[in-house]
Amino acid sequence: MRFGNTTVLHEVTFDVRAGEVVCLLGDNGAGKSTLIKVLSGVYRPTSGSVEIDGTPVRFAGPAEARARGIATVHQYGGTAPLMSIDRNFFLGAEPVKGIWPFRRIDRDRTAAESLKALRELGLSRVTDARQLAGTMSGGERQALAIARAVYFGARLLILDEPTSALGVKEAALVLRMIGTARANGVGVVFITHNAQHAMAIGDRFAVLISGAVAAAFRRGEKSRTEVLDLMAGGEEFQALTEGMEDAHGPG
Ligand SMILES: Nc1ncnc2c1ncn2[C@@H]1O[C@H](COP(=O)(O)OP(=O)(O)OP(=O)(O)O)[C@@H](O)[C@H]1O
User: Fold this and answer.
1) Helical packing angle, 168-183 and 138-151, nearest 10°
2) Does the beta carbon of 204 lie inside 6 Å of ligand 1?
3) Which atom of ligand 1 is nearest to the CA of 211?
4) What are the pLDDT digits (tens) for 117-151?
5) Minimum-distance ligand 1 atom for the alpha carbon of 193
6) How many Cβ atoms sit within 10 Å of the Cβ of residue 168?
7) What gap in Å lies between CA 231 and CA 194, rounded to an integer?
8) Ligand 1 centre from 208 Cα, in Å?
9) Are the beta carbons of 16 and 159 closer than 8 angstroms?
10) For the segment 137-146, what is each residue's pLDDT rounded down to a tens digit?
11) What is the ipTM of this complex?
12) 32 lines ligand 1 (CB under 6 A)
């Protein structure tokens, strides 16, 4: 993928199968966001191709990618805090009742159906779907966005740093929801800076460095330290912590 004279992605071969979680790791500026935008139809690749079921596809825009089952959830979940949980869940696909021109959203059905779906998908703390989404925690909002994608039949779910702003329990909730998506046969691309989160859920891993896939491996093939080092942040982090020990002096 080039922008003018700047090549942001090259040598990126990357595949995701149904029912697996592929973690895309990489430091800031490695090209993760650009890759997501290519996969989700925001950018058309200047060379190379995106294939679904082995057939090359060209998306005119994100709506076309969504129509082919590619759902993208960004860091803050894409939920509207001042809308109720059920409206967020259905977002334009609400069941309606009545006959035109008296058609209206069937609020009882949206509330009941979204609550049932969220509970089946593991969001058990939600008891009233008419509550504002803003009353949910950050992790619950992420989980809601993932649950919605699974419910509406996403085949590929792209998660852009869904756990990076969350505490441990909240991150665990999101990781569980990623597991639910996988169990439902959805292919997941999980973008993260957090090697621990990646290793908790990933089946395969790809490390992106300066726009190229520098390493690709399966679960269990590398230790956490090796992964951290690969993520280019690893060596720097070690140097940084060693530097800090020096700064504290002995004892
Ligand atoms: N539209 C563009 N035009 C020119 N350069 C771009 C464009 N978009 C991104 N880049 C450059 O490409 C590189 C990769 O950017 P990208 O946002 O994909 O990285 P990233 O891995 O997602 O980083 P981060 O974790 O910080 O979001 C950066 O050096 C960025 O400046």
Assistant:
1) 10
2) no
3) 14
4) 888 888 888 889 899 998 898 899 999 999 988 98
5) 25
6) 9
7) 10
8) 12
9) no
10) 889 999 999 9
11) 0.92
12) yes
Average pLDDT, the chain: 85
How far apart CA 48 and CA 41 sit, in angstroms, is: 14
Query: Does residue 194 have its Cβ closer than 6 Å to ligand 1?
Result: no
Q: What is the CATH number of domain 2-77+154-248?
A: 3.40.50.300
Q: How far is the CA of 30 from the centre of ligand 1 (A)?
A: 7
Q: Find the 60 Cα to ligand 1 centroid distance in Å.
A: 21
C-beta separation of 195 from 26 below 8 A: no
Strand partners, 189: 22, 158
Q: How far is the CA of 79 from the centre of ligand 1 (A)?
A: 25
In the chain, what are the domain boundaries?
2-77+154-248, 80-135
Q: How far apart are CA 98 and CA 161, in angstroms?
A: 41
Residue 33 Cβ inside 6 Å of ligand 1? The answer reads yes
